[in-house]
Specification:
Number of helices: 0
Structural class: mainly beta
Distance between the termini: 22 Å
Order of helices and strands: EEEEEEEEEE
């Protein structure tokens, strides 16, 4: 499923924005003209990665300082040891789209 995140120019450069859609909580980051999307929950303590500080192509968890690669979702430092998911992003005519697979909730 393709979800619009909004205009590229509306995303703050060097900061995260949390997007919730189809059962996903995603942190979207714009670094210049590049846009990255990873799971918003730190795999160590479930803090919002969208609220973290960005260093190059890593984001630091605001709770315990683990850094995650915006490219791979892999943790680059402890205490996190498990990766967060990454999501495909496409920019078309200045609009940012996120590719998501719907999560079905158990009834």
């Amino acid at each position: 499923m393709r979800v619009s995140v909004g205009s590229l120019t509306d995303l703050p450069d060097g900061q995260g924005v949390r997007v919730e859609s189809s059962g996903h909580r995603v942190a979207v980051f714009r670094l210049g003209d590049a846009v990255y999307a990873i799971g918003d929950r730190c795999s160590h303590a479930e803090a919002s990665l969208a609220e973290g500080e960005v260093f190059d192509t890593d984001v630091e968890c605001p709770r315990h300082g683990s850094e995650f690669s915006l490219l791979t979702g892999e943790p680059d430092s402890f205490p996190a040891t498990r990766p967060v998911p990454t999501y495909e992003i496409e920019v078309v005519d200045g609009e940012v789209f996120l590719e998501l697979e719907p999560i079905e909730e158990n009834a």
